[in-house]
Write a structure and sequence with these properties.
Helices cover about 70% and strands about 0% of the residues. The chain has 10 helices and no strands.
Amino acid sequence: MTGASATQVGEDPLVTESRRRILAAAERLIGVHGIEKVRLRDIAREAGFSIGKIQHYFDNRDEIIEAMLSAASMRRVEEWATFANDIDDPTAKMVSLLEHAITDRERCTVWLATTSVASRNEQFIPDVARIYEAWRAKLTDVIEAGRRDGTFHPTAPVDEAADGIISTIDGLMSAVAVGLPDYTPERNTRMLRHIAGLLLGTTLEPTRADSDADSGSATQ
């Protein structure tokens, strides 16, 4: 089962809410414990359901995990894209997207689990491809806007510049997911701005909030 099939068209609202609670419980547990340690009874306990009720909606633990990973990863990409919706300036848009690309370890852990499942299950690859395309579409729109107004001077084709930024985000998310200590939020954002700036032929300045955060950490 994939995220697209987790909620059926015309489904009873109570069924929809029950599925949502089950998938949200699985997401929380995987974000904390990793995919291998989460069992069906853990999901049932976290969701506040009996195992029998959960099996009314999903056949087994793996079906829950697959549905959750697809739905959660796509939802998080859509949420990420909204951080630039109310910003007109391409540079400010790009900086906002970069600052919100890697927000917490749970998000990174879920994404790492998503790609891990896809690497072992071919039927899951279209879901991952759809998520990458959503990332690419948002970044490409911002890069094109900056190129048109002369703000950005991409050093590679626009789609490849977007993929270069995505690859950097991907690598940093993996480092955060496994808990490497050097990959702090402030350092990750600085690296993202620097690498994106090189790809876009510009300098991406931090926002005031980011500057204040960096200054605060430097004085502690």
